Amino acid sequence: MARIPYPDLDKASGEVREMLARLPRPANVFKMMAHAETCVKPVMKLGGTLLGKLQLDPKVRELCLLRAVKLEGGEYEWDQHVPIARDFGCSEAQIAALEDDDDTASCFDAREQAALQFTREVVLDVRASEETLAQARRHLSNREIVELILMAGFYITLARLTETLGVETEPPMASALVRDIERRVAAKKKGMPS
After folding, report:
1. Do the domain assignments include residue 182?
2. Residue 169 is assigned to a structural domain of this protein
């Protein structure tokens, strides 16, 4: 049960209602976020960018996202993103390894291990070590490293919101949200209305 009540969305601004209507179905995290009306649109736009416009490989993104939220205790985000991770090719062994706090398991290739170790240090230590950054740079471009840091920070923020306020987890949207974002991005590139 949520620790504070969800806002009355009938009283929310048109912008908030419009942004929430873009979701494949209602999401409690964004309903709760509607308390901070002026944050909903920019947060959702950043979230959409992180899910649909990164150079970072979606499978690596999802593995590192799961790593970050597991380290932070973000059950809501974990529950929402495990199906997305599966859809992008993450194996049951990889998901189980992350759940068991083992980001060096043999089910991860060298690139994935480097990204996961980098994520771990960014989340727990704030600053990745020189050695870990160098290892990540062997596998990821500078752009991908920055994207990874921004993505981890974004989902850590959501984890703090959902866990602090007791946001209830609804059935996962799975990749419906990501596919919708990808469709919108492709439509914009072609100059079509989204």
Report:
1. yes
2. yes
